[in-house]
């Protein structure tokens, strides 16, 4: 029943009703209001979500915004210092810039490599072969395990002086016994390799996108003489650009927030020489090791703004390279 029809029914009932029918008319109004979706029941079911939104998201964010303008050590009341935390961050904290450099290198190198490998594996797995589900599960498994502390510890052993990576190089006569984790020139790139190894999540998303591509377009291109490389760059990649864009945004955000591998592999120090001092690790150290929670809150808001800026730039740039059906 539409709103106009409902109003007509109410008016008709009101016109024909006598004073003795007032209660019946009120019941009709309430019944019609419920049919319109009124009442407080929807809000009751939404209440847990609202509690979580305001109690676990909005309030902590506003509280951290306030703390970013204070000197707060978790033990004594916060003292208002204005913009001092932000001024110190950009003018008098060289470790901050080391963390920015390490994080940007990590994001710029790991995200393209991870997405390229994920797309390549997804195309290999986009076939109707016997046991293909088992292969897909096996390639996805690293994404389930990669964020665990145990895997980071194993990774530290693999790239140690006596680790498996040096044993592998020894097969080619290249084993120099170098401890890749302890060298400031290579330590960060071991984290990059660990990130690339966790390509399962974007691979699954790419695979879902490949399943939706129209097969008749590829068949027509093959009949016209287009080879596999031409079909990939002229058909597959343009049709897949919405999925690529989605993965790019997600992976950039995840890369900026990387914490566990850097913490475990460097024993929480960000060494050697701050080469693995990713931004999230530095934020953690300032807040929970040095007890400078006000400064850590300022660092968190800078990270939030940087991620928002990268996301906005991606959305603006997507107008020029992402192709939708329309």
Q: How would you describe this structure to a colleague?
A:
It is built from 15 helices and two strands. It has helices spanning 3-16, 22-35, 41-67, 84-91, 94-125, 132-145, 149-158, 164-170, 187-197, 200-211, 215-223, 228-256, 260-265, 279-289, 293-321, and strands spanning 70-71, 79-80. A hairpin with a 7-residue loop joins β1 and β2. The longest helix has 32 residues, at 94-125.
Notable characteristics:
about 325 residues, mainly alpha, two-stranded antiparallel ribbon, 15 helices
Helix tally? 15
**Percent of residues in helical segments?**
over 70%
Strand count: 2
**What Rg is obtained from the alpha carbons, in whole angstroms?**
29 Å
Please state the overall shape, judged from the principal axes of the Cα atoms.
flat
Q: Nutshell version of this structure?
A:
The chain has 326 residues and is mainly alpha-helical. 71% of the residues lie in helices and 1% in strands.
